[in-house]
Design a protein that fits this description.
The structure is a homodimer. Chain A has helices at residues 13-16, 27-40, 52-61, 73-97, 107-110, 124-132, 155-165, 199-212, 222-227, 229-233, 248-254; strands at residues 7-11, 45-49, 102-104, 111-114, 117-121, 135-139, 141-145, 149-153, 170-175, 196-198, 237-242, 261-264. By secondary structure, chain A is α/β, with parallel strands linked by helices. In chain A, the strands form three sheets. Chain A has an eight-stranded mixed sheet, with helices on both faces. A two-stranded antiparallel sheet of chain A has the order 4-5. In chain A, strand 4 (111-114) and strand 5 (117-121) form a beta hairpin. In chain A, helix 2 (27-40) packs parallel to helix 11. The two termini of chain A are 26 Å apart.
Amino acid sequence: MRSKGLTVLKIGGSVITMKDKALTPNNSAIKRLAKEIAGSRLSPLIIVHGGGGFGHPIAAKYGIAEGFKDEKQMVGFSKTHNAMMKLNMLIVEALLDEGLPAFSMAPSSFIITRSGRIQHIYRDPLEQALKLGFTPVLYGDAVFDYDLGFTVLSGDQILSRLATELNAERIIIGVDVDGLYTIDPKIDPRAQLITCLTLNELVNLIDKIGGSRSVDVTGGMMGKIRELMAPAMNGINILIVNALKPNYIYKALRGEDVVGTKIIRE
Amino acid sequence: MRSKGLTVLKIGGSVITMKDKALTPNNSAIKRLAKEIAGSRLSPLIIVHGGGGFGHPIAAKYGIAEGFKDEKQMVGFSKTHNAMMKLNMLIVEALLDEGLPAFSMAPSSFIITRSGRIQHIYRDPLEQALKLGFTPVLYGDAVFDYDLGFTVLSGDQILSRLATELNAERIIIGVDVDGLYTIDPKIDPRAQLITCLTLNELVNLIDKIGGSRSVDVTGGMMGKIRELMAPAMNGINILIVNALKPNYIYKALRGEDVVGTKIIRE
């Protein structure tokens, strides 16, 4: 399927959950974002969200990302998935309340990885959902892995791979900062927002960070931007915006000007 | 994959939900069955459960089984799935509480139908789950359909198809009666339990009921027993038991003698 005009929207876990409290949704952010997304009337659209305080603490406790080593992890693997399902259901229900035909899809049921990288996405039901006008809502999940037994699959990897496979037109990434900075803004107040980055500049940035072993100047967004290489190379326009600021996601979805970091092929 | 010794267990919706109250789980039955299933220490095992008061009322309200006719159904389709996810999570969590590594799998994410019949089951993650020793827990669901757009897929069809594809050894079906009767026991007190039925007798029974257009002597189990033809023909042993009676499911899983209806190839 060539999805003409498909947008893939990522909502970071730090946006929709409370940072310092496990299993606590940020209900006001969820409600506001549901209004913004439904209000944009954008279709076709796929949403992928992160785990924040839902998935990560349980996954970390049981060492899920490192793979299957001990039977004691099995219950933890399942609990990680359940926690993500609960968060996902809150998002989907908030969207349904706004009249958007969102539909929950469980990554662990149709995506399988090898050594932590996506091996197959069985996209058939998801593509049927898109064709009918649904907005599939996926999430970072505890998934099965051919080599590791199981692992943690980030929403960022799902986003990157799905957008590439479906030839999406745009990726919009909603995070808890304004975008990429010249230096980590949480450490150095001289940090300046990078408003536009070409693919070459993105590669250089990743090289620089990878090589220096210094503080991650992306403010913890290194994993995120690594995943953006493939879609950027495929000519998919990428925009990173602050989803905690009201109407930023709405404007981004509508294609209106908004503060953030654009990543373009050239 | 040839699953040697695989058991597929169906738990009817009428067993785990309250008949006369929408969205109300039968918590004591769920807890007891979780103990019985975990206590049997049976592996490999797949569980499929029905919807009862969770899935059916919403699916009926929006006419989901009849397929996509109107955009207004879309929110209802998604809500049907959400209701089933909620019920599923209760079952999975009850099993996890008993130490059984159950894992929720969402049929709508990896099964697609054509005119209401299963066209593809993308079984890869499910088989990986089984291989690791997990007990996948599936459910009747609102699913996407190539011809109808979407429809309702019964747990019975999933059970039948999965058991056949995976060459299961046994199917155990937990319902709210003791098994199949010579006549509907809710109508005629002379009804006698059929303790054993060959494939030929099963075919004759379906013919008789289908032809007579009279009262369904199976007590509403016609849809269920129709789905049992394919696995019975494939030599899979089938046992229908009363899951509301304590220890019946436990004994059935353990292969111990228990009141019920056996269906065998010959």
